[in-house]
Amino acid sequence: MVRWGQPGVGRLVLLHGWGANSRDLLPLGVHLMDGLGDVVALQAPEPHPHVPGGRQWYPLNQEAEAQGWPGMPKALDYINHHLIRLQQEHPWSRTALLGFSQGAAMALEAAVHKPLAGVVACSGYPHGRNPLQGLQSPVLLIHGQNDPVVPLQASLRLQELLDAQGCEVVLRSFPGEHTIPTETLVPIRQFLERCFMPTPGGSR
Questions:
Q1: pTM of structure
Q2: How far is residue 200 from each of residues 33, 38, 138, 153, 203, measured CA to CA in Å?
């Protein structure tokens, strides 16, 4: 776990992608949270099988996918353990999650049945056996239209699933690949501002 910044109105918890580590998204988080609060970057529990220094939330291969991602529940327990500890310092109602790729998929899972301020899922995907029932936090989906790693169709499916259960969800696609480009930083920042500082009338 890596921390940056001083407590403020909000907290952003980062979940990195497959093969990265806790420091990968930290510069992004620092930029997004300037003047809003602090950043906590979690590190996946397992070493990546091929990338030195890289981590994974669970094994990511065709066999694991065919079996319904058997490593996902253990990874979710790990994230929940940290979120519960962090809640003792800062309320979930002022905590948002941001994940990339595998980290985005886990951020959505971790938001289920928690009154979080919001979730930003960049290049994420749904776990086939879990339709994310119980996720009611606002969600911003970010995805490249030409992503060769996680196709845009994955976020379209997430949008469909979340919209069907009444979740506030917005999908912003961009003409790029498997990344978080500069052009998405403003809409992400605006989303976080609405999450952490809702209007007096209660709308975000």
A1: 0.93
A2: 22, 23, 17, 36, 8
